[in-house]
């Protein structure tokens, strides 16, 4: 191992060389830090010199950590899966297993690339094989499995046989093969689209499965992908986490915590230790995903140390050492046999299936009539060829002529059905959902369930939480009170009070303080509230976590949850043995359990009615200033064993106010919701005054809503269901709410006919997230349990992203409506033209191949063009889409009937009079009908981009997919008419005829503009007054269709 050693002697004269010496020492420290990150070598200190080892890249390839457990030991692999307690005890419990895996509670595994790779090679990776997705040819077969396409292929086969028999191989194969090619082209384009969307869905599914896991590696707590968890990893678990791998409970050391380089607490460690997690306390898991039993199971080192993959932490916190990953776990075996493909149709797809079925029945009816008419005309000699001769000659009656004629007529009838049935509707839904999901991920909204995209378009009220969603989630302590004294300087507070506060902040926490050296600032982790309190304690109170952990040992912990709104810890002084209970939480709740309070001089005073009222005023003043008020309290208790921390008769230690500023974009986002007819409700666990202040700042409470109510959770709980139903529409802010309040509110809103969506981040939010029509979990602060219960994950915890999801939900529905309008126009025009022509002339103007080409334009290419449009500003300036709103609105009927009527009229005119007007023959006239019909659809695709607005060109240049589809369609149409004449049954057209076709098609634009100009403007919603539940204060917010539907959440 090559390295350089630099010795810096201390022989300089300090009066002349002190500047240089300081620079050298500072440089040494920095080089040491860089070296330690990769090598983990101890930085040795002495009074006279500092020794630094700088390693080669080869030094990173250190020897693999030795395991005393064989990687192929089946009894060890099944340790958790089979709950082998004898193996657990034989290896020395959790600590012994960790040591056998070259790991430990304090330091975890070494964690460098070589170590992780070695563990993966020995024990496997935390992945499992998934069923192979559909291959491309499988999608082709699915596309060809359509019954009418199969019938058409049979007809093509018969046509091929009769054609070769009648005209020989040289000329007789063309009609049959042309139909074959056209059918396979339609199937191939559909398969390409479905295959690409399937790959996109798989990619999004993988992204949703890749969650971050907190582990201890190289004595530092860090986050890694769930797929990178390896055997030996020490995984940190807290409420709401999903266990990523099989493991056993690992008791924490509870000993001293190392902060500075070069002072290791254990001889074998050659890197600085981060403060380890406190010992596991009251760790409970939900094993229903594995056993089906819904009751929480307690995990401890003695009675039940086994923790299986996939179970959820419902209370407490702790550490496990991973013993098996991937396919060595029961979860991996189960998941590898489950296909990820979701074949369940979304609600919109179910409705479209009904529409497709209805249109298909009409198409079949028309096809039957056409078949009957054409058959009758054919056999009575009314159908004639281009030379005017009857196609059926009674004098030369043979089986071949009869059967060939029937096959040709049947083929035409079948192609009418193929064109009439809108197979593109399911494709359009898939396309727009896949497109929307991909774009929503880029805008920080990860869709976990497809139906959520559609349902978001029907949301009319958004009830959101506060912290991190409406605010920046960047908390900072801005006020500090000891008793009724507002502290300006910590120096004015008695030292004993400061020491107790350091204990309450530094030990009653799930956060951590990591100081890499004595120069760099400390790295603080935890929730925003915990980070703010720890940062304040370190910077303002001078808290030394290392000394604190040496002096005190944690005896018992009660973790924070949304019901209690406080957390507690019991500690024992190492020197005296005295036991102290510390509590921290919502100020008014902690204050209610206090009988004494501490003054700034350190004296303890009785908390009487007057003092209690004064402290409540302090809390209310901070709350009115939109500060979150946290109280610290303590109590000296007996040193005996206690299963519960005493929370009665506490002594109030201090009050602190934390400021979390509103997001700068949230007010504009709430204003956009109001314009869109979407009401915003805030449901939070904060004090009612804090909630009101934030709601006013964000624009949820304005001066136009006298009927609005600000209510607290306990008031709502105390009401009867009938009373709750009577006020639920008028609630604007619910403060001090519990998860149960959230669930009941969702149920009441749904009873009133609302479409409810809930935002939540905690484990206890899961029932409300599942009950809601759309559950929105927070990606930053949300627990894994909350995310699994939700439909959409808001990756940045920002309310503006919730509004974005609503906009995309409306876009999904709007894009489907655009496509329906476009496709039905083609369907109506094609059916009427073919039926009328068949009845009056005995033949259809469009050949089988031409109709298949129209079907391709209408279905696949039309879906690609119209289903991938991005949301427009106009979508958020109209009322929400009702849950049962008709798929085809009156405006759509107006637009499509106007265009279809025009197309039928002009094309039938060409059918009857085109030869005389343009001086063309029979085939050229048919080509003009085909060309004009296709170009009409191309021009009408622009009209279909808008249903209500006249400016159909708005944003068209930004939609490259749409412009590309239009360009490809026009280019291929030119090829069909001018090049593939025999394949398409066309004849080349002159420039006059092309100009005529373009002019006929271009008339679609003024017709669309004229029809849309007749639409009536929708009336805007009327305002309504915000009051608190008692009706004493009037504060207002805008009300816009509050009696429709809702989204919901909590802090």
TrEMBL record:
<dbReference type="GO" id="GO:0046872">
    <property type="term" value="F:metal ion binding"/>
</dbReference>
<dbReference type="Pfam" id="PF00690">
    <property type="entry name" value="Cation_ATPase_N"/>
</dbReference>
<feature type="transmembrane region" description="Helical">
    <location>
        <begin position="962"/>
        <end position="985"/>
    </location>
</feature>
<dbReference type="GO" id="GO:0012505">
    <property type="term" value="C:endomembrane system"/>
</dbReference>
<dbReference type="InterPro" id="IPR018303">
    <property type="entry name" value="ATPase_P-typ_P_site"/>
</dbReference>
<keyword id="KW-0472">Membrane</keyword>
<dbReference type="InterPro" id="IPR006068">
    <property type="entry name" value="ATPase_P-typ_cation-transptr_C"/>
</dbReference>
<dbReference type="InterPro" id="IPR059000">
    <property type="entry name" value="ATPase_P-type_domA"/>
</dbReference>
<feature type="transmembrane region" description="Helical">
    <location>
        <begin position="819"/>
        <end position="839"/>
    </location>
</feature>
<comment type="function">
    <text>Catalyzes the hydrolysis of ATP coupled with the transport of calcium.</text>
</comment>
<dbReference type="InterPro" id="IPR006408">
    <property type="entry name" value="P-type_ATPase_IIB"/>
</dbReference>
<feature type="domain" description="Cation-transporting P-type ATPase N-terminal">
    <location>
        <begin position="93"/>
        <end position="164"/>
    </location>
</feature>
<dbReference type="GO" id="GO:0005516">
    <property type="term" value="F:calmodulin binding"/>
</dbReference>
<keyword id="KW-1133">Transmembrane helix</keyword>
<feature type="transmembrane region" description="Helical">
    <location>
        <begin position="359"/>
        <end position="380"/>
    </location>
</feature>
<keyword id="KW-0547">Nucleotide-binding</keyword>
<feature type="transmembrane region" description="Helical">
    <location>
        <begin position="409"/>
        <end position="435"/>
    </location>
</feature>
<protein>
    <recommendedName>
        <fullName>Calcium-transporting ATPase</fullName>
        <ecNumber>7.2.2.10</ecNumber>
    </recommendedName>
</protein>
<keyword id="KW-0460">Magnesium</keyword>
<dbReference type="GO" id="GO:0005886">
    <property type="term" value="C:plasma membrane"/>
</dbReference>
<dbReference type="Pfam" id="PF13246">
    <property type="entry name" value="Cation_ATPase"/>
</dbReference>
<dbReference type="InterPro" id="IPR001757">
    <property type="entry name" value="P_typ_ATPase"/>
</dbReference>
<keyword id="KW-0812">Transmembrane</keyword>
<feature type="transmembrane region" description="Helical">
    <location>
        <begin position="176"/>
        <end position="193"/>
    </location>
</feature>
<dbReference type="GO" id="GO:0005524">
    <property type="term" value="F:ATP binding"/>
</dbReference>
<feature type="transmembrane region" description="Helical">
    <location>
        <begin position="991"/>
        <end position="1012"/>
    </location>
</feature>
<keyword id="KW-0112">Calmodulin-binding</keyword>
<dbReference type="GO" id="GO:0016887">
    <property type="term" value="F:ATP hydrolysis activity"/>
</dbReference>
<dbReference type="InterPro" id="IPR004014">
    <property type="entry name" value="ATPase_P-typ_cation-transptr_N"/>
</dbReference>
<dbReference type="InterPro" id="IPR044492">
    <property type="entry name" value="P_typ_ATPase_HD_dom"/>
</dbReference>
<dbReference type="Pfam" id="PF00122">
    <property type="entry name" value="E1-E2_ATPase"/>
</dbReference>
<keyword id="KW-0106">Calcium</keyword>
<dbReference type="GO" id="GO:0005388">
    <property type="term" value="F:P-type calcium transporter activity"/>
</dbReference>
<dbReference type="Pfam" id="PF00689">
    <property type="entry name" value="Cation_ATPase_C"/>
</dbReference>
<comment type="similarity">
    <text>Belongs to the cation transport ATPase (P-type) (TC 3.A.3) family. Type IIB subfamily.</text>
</comment>
<keyword id="KW-0406">Ion transport</keyword>
<keyword id="KW-1278">Translocase</keyword>
<keyword id="KW-0109">Calcium transport</keyword>
<keyword id="KW-0067">ATP-binding</keyword>
<feature type="transmembrane region" description="Helical">
    <location>
        <begin position="851"/>
        <end position="868"/>
    </location>
</feature>
<feature type="transmembrane region" description="Helical">
    <location>
        <begin position="140"/>
        <end position="164"/>
    </location>
</feature>
<keyword id="KW-0479">Metal-binding</keyword>
């Amino acid at each position: 191992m090559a390295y350089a050693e630099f010795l810096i002697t201390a022989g300089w004269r300090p009066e002349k060389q002190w500047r240089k010496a300081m620079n050298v020492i500072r440089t040494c420290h920095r080089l040491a830090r860089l070296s330690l990150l990769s090598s983990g070598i101890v930085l040795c200190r002495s009074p006279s010199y500092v020794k630094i080892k700088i390693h080669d890249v080869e030094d990173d390839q250190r020897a693999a950590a030795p395991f005393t457990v064989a990687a192929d030991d089946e009894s060890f692999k099944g340790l958790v899966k089979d709950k082998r307690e004898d193996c657990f005890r034989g290896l020395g419990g959790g600590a012994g297993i960790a040591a056998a895996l070259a790991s430990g509670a304090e330091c975890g595994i070494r964690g460098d690339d070589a170590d992780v790779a070695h563990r993966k090679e020995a024990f496997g990776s935390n992945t499992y094989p998934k069923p192979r997705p559909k291959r491309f040819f499988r999608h082709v077969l699915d596309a060809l499995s359509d019954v009418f396409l199969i019938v058409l292929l049979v007809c093509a086969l018969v046509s091929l046989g009769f054609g070769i028999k009648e005209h020989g191989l040289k000329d007789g194969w063309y009609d049959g093969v042309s139909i074959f090619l056209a059918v396979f082209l339609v199937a191939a384009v559909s398969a390409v689209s479905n295959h690409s969307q399937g790959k996109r869905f798989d990619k999004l599914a993988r992204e949703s499965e890749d969650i971050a896991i907190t582990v201890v590696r190289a004595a530092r707590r860090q986050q890694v992908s769930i797929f990178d968890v390896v055997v030996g990893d020490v995984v940190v678990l807290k409420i709401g986490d999903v266990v990523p791998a099989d493991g056993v409970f690992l008791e924490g050391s509870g000993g001293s915590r190392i902060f500075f380089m070069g002072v290791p607490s254990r001889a074998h460690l050659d890197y600085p230790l981060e403060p380890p997690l406190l010992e596991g306390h009251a760790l409970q898991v939900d094993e229903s995903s594995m056993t089906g039993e819904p009751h929480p199971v307690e995990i401890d080192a003695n009675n039940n140390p086994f923790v299986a993959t996939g179970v959820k932490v419902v209370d407490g916190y702790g550490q496990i050492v991973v013993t098996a990953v991937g396919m060595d776990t029961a979860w991996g075996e189960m998941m590898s046999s489950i296909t990820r493909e979701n074949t369940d149709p979304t609600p919109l797809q179910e409705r479209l299936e009904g529409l497709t079925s209805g249109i298909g029945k009409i198409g079949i009816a028309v096809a039957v009539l056409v078949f009957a008419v054409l058959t009758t005309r054919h056999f009575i000699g009314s159908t004639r060829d281009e030379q005017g001769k009857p196609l059926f000659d009674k004098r030369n009656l043979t089986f071949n002529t009869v059967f060939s004629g029937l096959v040709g007529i049947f083929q035409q009838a079948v192609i009418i059905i193929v064109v009439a049935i809108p197979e593109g509707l399911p494709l359009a839904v898939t396309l727009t959902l896949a497109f929307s999901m991909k774009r929503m991920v880029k805008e920080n909204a990860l869709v976990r369930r497809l139906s959520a995209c559609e349902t978001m378009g029907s949301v009319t009220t958004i009830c959101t939480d506060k912290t991190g969603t409406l605010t920046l989630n960047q908390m900072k302590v801005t006020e500090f009170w000891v008793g009724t004294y507002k502290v300006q300087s910590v120096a004015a507070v008695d030292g004993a009070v400061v020491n107790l506060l350091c204990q309450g902040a530094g030990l009653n926490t799930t956060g951590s303080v990591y100081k890499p050296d004595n120069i760099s600032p400390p790295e603080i982790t935890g929730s925003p509230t915990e980070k703010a309190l720890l940062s304040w304690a370190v910077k303002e109170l001078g808290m030394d976590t290392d000394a604190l952990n040496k002096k005190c040992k944690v005896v018992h912990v009660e973790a924070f949850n949304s019901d209690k709104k406080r957390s507690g810890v019991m500690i024992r002084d190492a020197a005296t043995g005295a036991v102290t209970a510390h509590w921290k939480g919502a100020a008014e709740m902690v204050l209610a359990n206090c009988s004494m309070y501490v003054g700034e001089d350190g004296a303890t005073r009785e908390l009487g009615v007057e003092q209690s009222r004064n402290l409540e005023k302090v809390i209310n003043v901070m709350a009115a200033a939109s500060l979150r008020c946290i109280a610290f309290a303590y109590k000296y208790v007996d040193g005996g064993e206690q299963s519960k921390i005493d929370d009665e008769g506490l002594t109030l230690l201090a009050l602190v106010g934390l400021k979390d500023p509103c997001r700068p974009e949230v007010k504009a986002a709430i204003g956009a919701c109001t314009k869109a007819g979407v009401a915003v409700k805030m449901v939070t666990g904060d004090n009612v005054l804090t909630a009101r202040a934030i709601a006013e700042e964000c624009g949820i409470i304005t001066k136009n809503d006298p009927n609005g109510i600000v209510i607290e959770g306990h008031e709502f709980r105390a009401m009867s269901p009938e009373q709750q139903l009577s006020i639920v529409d008028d609630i604007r802010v619910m403060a001090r709410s519990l998860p149960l309040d959230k669930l009941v509110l969702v149920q009441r809103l749904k009873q009133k006919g609302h479409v409810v969506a809930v935002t939540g981040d905690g484990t206890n939010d899961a029932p409300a997230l599942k009950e809601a029509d759309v559950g929105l979990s927070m990606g930053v602060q949300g627990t894994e349990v909350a995310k699994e219960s939700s439909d959409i994950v808001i990756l940045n915890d920002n309310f503006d992203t919730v509004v974005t999801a609503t906009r995309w939900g409306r876009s999904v529905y709007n894009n489907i409506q655009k496509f329906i309008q476009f496709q039905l126009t083609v369907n109506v025009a094609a059916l009427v033209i073919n039926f009328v022509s068949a009845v009056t002339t005995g033949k259809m103007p469009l050949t089988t191949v031409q109709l298949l080409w129209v079907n391709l334009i209408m279905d696949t290419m039309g879906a690609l063009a119209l289903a991938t449009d991005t949301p427009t500003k106009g979508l958020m300036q109209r009322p929400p889409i009702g849950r049962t709103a008709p798929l085809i609105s009156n405006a759509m009927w107006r637009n499509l009937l106007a265009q279809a009527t025009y197309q039928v009229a002009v094309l039938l005119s060409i059918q009857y009079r085109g030869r005389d007007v343009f001086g063309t023959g029979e085939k050229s006239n048919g080509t003009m009908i085909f060309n004009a019909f296709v170009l009409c659809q191309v021009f009408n695709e622009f009209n279909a981009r808008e249903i209500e607005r006249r400016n159909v060109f708005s944003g068209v240049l930004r939609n490259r997919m749409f412009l590309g589809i239009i360009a490809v369609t026009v280019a291929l149409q030119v090829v069909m008419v001018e090049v593939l004449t025999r394949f398409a049954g066309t004849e080349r057209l002159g420039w006059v005829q092309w100009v005529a076709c373009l002019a006929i098609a271009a008339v679609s634009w003024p017709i669309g503009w004229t029809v849309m100009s007749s639409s009536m403007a929708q009336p805007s919603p009327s305002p309504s007054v915000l009051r608190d539940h008692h009706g004493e204060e009037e504060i207002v917010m805008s009300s816009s269709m509050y009696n429709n539907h809702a989204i919901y959440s909590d802090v």
